[in-house]
Amino acid sequence: MAERMTCRLGRESYPADGEDAVLAGGLARRDPVVFDQLVETYQARVARLVCRLLGWPQDVDDVVQEVFLAAWKGLPRFRGQAELGTWLMRITINKCRGHRRKEMLRLRRFWRSKERQQMRNAVSADGATLDAENQAEVRRAVRRLPARYCEVIVLRYLEEMPVERIGQVLGLTRNAVEVRLHRARARLRKELGGLLEE
User: How confident is the model at residue 85 (pLDDT cuts 50, 70, 90)?
Assistant: First the structure.
């Protein structure tokens, strides 16, 4: 993981059929070569999810390393009851929750005043710039959501996970996921109004 992580928004493919089972077998033996293969297979997806959940790409490298360190330490507890990808996404979300709590406490006041100033200063007649500003406002609104709502929005609409898989990752029932999605969308509609429809 020496190379610098970037906040790539592309979509990586899931491991080929059977690849997870091979990795899980090697991981059960705590084989470092297999663990390197796990990192190589999932690193980009974990980094992308971290970036989307945190919203500040400068911390992606640190959190990704924390995720894989926690995965290595947690290998004895991995029983294969979930897919490796689901297990790693759950670890990623937990690490992001902790990191987000710490950072948001530190940045809350600064963030609000800076955003207000940027919005007052933002004047542009260029449609592309306006579109970028609209997208930025939506991203800011998603980041302002409580973590439980931010997570389901990111997983559903940016990671394009089905509701059932979100439930597996977050340890929630389908109904609980749908309730969180409904409440998150309602908050975003209230805050963004017509901008969300665009």
Answer: confident
Q: How many CA atoms lie within 13 A of 189 on its CB side?
A: 7
Q: List, in order, residues 6 or more apart from 150 with CB less than 8 Å away.
A: 53, 142, 143, 184
Going along the chain from its start, the domains and CATH numbers come out as 12-109 (1.10.1740.10), 122-198 (1.10.10.10)
pTM over 0.90: no
How far is CA 49 from its chain centroid? 3
What's the mean pLDDT when you consider all of the chain? 78
DSSP 8-state assignment for residue 172: -
**Tokens coding 68:** 């894989």
How far are the Cα atoms of 37, 63, 77, 87, 99 from residue 72, in angstroms, in the given order? Answer: 12, 14, 10, 12, 19
Res 46: pLDDT: 94
